[in-house]
From TrEMBL:
Gene3D superfamilies: 3.40.630.30
Name the UniProt record assigns to this protein: GNAT family acetyltransferase
Biological source species: Variovorax soli
InterPro entries assigned to the protein according to its UniProt record, in alphabetical order: Acyl_CoA_acyltransferase (IPR016181), Gcn5-rel_NAT (IPR045057), GNAT_dom (IPR000182), GNAT_YJDJ (IPR031165)
Domain N-acetyltransferase: 1-101, 6-92
Entries under Pfam families matching the protein: Acetyltransf_CG (PF14542)
Highest taxon of the lineage: Bacteria
Length: 101
């Protein structure tokens, strides 16, 4: 199984597909100096298959590549960062306190 993740800026979200079917998405807002992740959802038929983790890893890696700090309003993304501390440097210090990261 291959999870393909693509950015759809016109929708303000990344979409994960499996075999051409939408499996999940991560919504975001681009701010002047950061990207705010607002909501992540995995469709019920694809839960438990690593779609959410693949989305989180992809969007955080892309933010790092673009040099964009992140604001993880989305609880899934915030939780992923708590578990994967290698992404802590992407989160603004004031945001870390606000979201208990």
């Amino acid at each position: 199984m291959t999870i393909l993740i693509t950015n759809h800026p016109e929708k303000h979200r990344y979409e994960a597909t499996i075999d051409g079917q939408l499996a999940g998405f991560c919504e975001y807002n681009l701010l002047q100096n950061a990207v705010m992740f607002t909501h992540t959802e995995v469709l019920p038929a694809f839960e438990g298959q690593g779609v959410g983790s693949a989305l989180a890893r992809h969007v955080l890696d892309e933010a790092r590549t673009q040099g964009m700090p992140v604001i993880p309003v989305c609880q899934f993304i915030a939780g992923y960062i708590r578990k994967h501390r290698e992404y802590m440097d992407l989160v603004r210090p004031e945001t870390q306190r606000a979201f208990k990261i």
